[in-house]
Amino acid sequence: MTIPWSAVSAPQRKALERLAFGGVGLLVVGAIVGFVLASIWERPIVKLSETATLTAARLRQAENQHDATRRQVDSLTDRLMSLQEDERRRIAAELHDSTSQHLAAASINLMRLKAEASNSKGAGEAYEEIKASLREAQTEIRIFTYLLHPPKLDSLA
Description:
This protein is mostly helical. It has one domain. It has three helices and no strands. The protein is rod-shaped.
């Protein structure tokens, strides 16, 4: 139902106009306050978003660098292990091929010496001591050779 404006009395009209003007004023003030608050809050939110994006990019970069460094460390570790194994193999071969051969030759020469000095009691005791020392040295060489480069290592490679 609509009431014509002319049917409203002057005091009522003035009260309605004041209410209408006050309502419009409140709407305008509310819009301005909303706009100001939105612009004030928007800056920190945008700044926070930019900071989060930059931090995420830096984190990805640090993770990539960490992965690359880890791969490099793994590669260097593998290389070091390979070099150590090569050195052990070389030392074991040297002990087996050279030092063991010298000990075997000394054993053979010692047997010849025993045959030539069989008359002397002191020579016999010296012979037994030298023979025991040579056997001990040969045993130690075999153990060192095995520990430096066990035969199973070649079968696993």
